[in-house]
Write a structure and sequence with these properties.
Elements (H helix, E strand, L loop, with lengths): L8 H5 L1 H6 L2 H18 L1 H4 L31 H37 L1 H16 L2 H12 L3 H27 L3 H8 L4 H9 L4 H24 L11 H10 L9 H25 L6
Main location: membrane
Protein name: ABC transporter permease
InterPro entries: BP-dependent_transpt_permease, MetI-like, MetI-like_sf, OppC_N
Length: about 290
């Protein structure tokens, strides 16, 4: 019997509803909806052009015309925060998408076929996991070139061994079930067995891992943008805004606050939802 089958029926049918019954998860989900809505509506709700410069109004404080002040070029910080929310949504999707695209098929195949395929894939994943993540991402970006897409592809490649190990472990457990043996006995091909019978039964741990990786990916994007290898000027990301604030800390020590708070809250949101999903899908109660 699979782990999913041991869960209460309402949880199996409506896992999102079970997650949202928790107050912390409901708040996190509401913040995520607000973030996505702000990213989509940024051109409408942003009070100023995020790239418009007012060099005579550098490092202005909070005012009615600039609710979060201005940066080193006199650009409106609130407008740049709203436009940077688009990066906060799309960057993790790109990197986690690459990780799943690479790690999911490899993990399914290795967990099902075992033998030499499993051994070689496992040692390759262990080798990649043993390397410093940020240094590896920097090396990949050096080959691909700076920019958001290339940076997130690099992060996705670094994440792919983690996805591989989660999928492989779950596949090894499901592959021992009777219904998998029955599928093979009636002539189902390996591909059909993996995608039709195995994948739906390993979706729970994969979903939890993806949710948690979203927060890690956002931190990775912010780190690369902070040092100039992610989002390129004049586009805004919270990481590049933190980098600019760091370089101007003596002129405006408060400039790190808006992008820093936005980054912390978003990463905390992904982690809270990931933990809640893990607890619900494993049958734990809220503490």
């Amino acid at each position: 019997m699979t782990a999913a089958a041991t869960l209460p029926a309402p949880v199996r049918r409506r896992p999102l509803r079970a997650v949202l019954r928790r107050p912390s998860s409901a708040v996190a989900f509401a913040f995520l909806v607000l973030l996505v809505g702000s990213a989509i509506a940024a051109p409408v709700i942003a009070p100023h052009d995020p790239d418009a410069q007012e060099l005579g109004n550098r490092f202005a404080g909070v005012s009615l015309s600039h609710l979060a002040g201005t940066d080193e070029f006199g650009r409106d910080v609130l407008s740049r925060l709203l436009y940077a929310a688009r990066i906060a949504v799309t960057a993790p999707l790109i990197s986690v998408g690459v990780a799943v695209l690479v790690g999911l098929p490899a993990g399914l195949w290795a967990g099902r076929r075992r033998g030499v395929v499993d051994a070689v894939s496992g040692r390759l994943a262990d080798t990649l996991l043993s390397l410093p993540a940020l240094a590896s991402a920097l090396a990949i970006v050096a080959v691909l070139g700076p920019g958001l897409t290339n940076a997130m592809i690099a992060v996705g490649i670094i994440f792919s061994p983690t996805v591989f190990r989660v999928v492989r472990g779950a596949t090894l457990a499901v592959a021992e079930e009777t219904f998998i043996e029955s599928a093979a006995a009636i002539g189902c091909s390996t591909r059909r067995t993996l995608w039709v019978h195995v994948l739906p039964n390993i979706a729970a741990p994969l979903l939890v891992q993806v949710t948690i990786l979203m927060g890690v990916a956002l931190l990775a994007e912010a780190s690369l943008s902070f040092i100039g290898l992610g989002v390129q000027p004049p586009d805004a990301s919270w990481g590049s805004m933190l980098g600019a604030a760091y370089r101007s800390q003596y002129d405006a020590p408060y400039a790190v606050v808006p992008p820093g708070i936005a980054l912390v809250l978003t990463v905390l949101t992904f982690n809270t939802l990931g933990d809640a999903l893990r607890d619900v899908l494993s049958g734990r109660r809220a503490s």
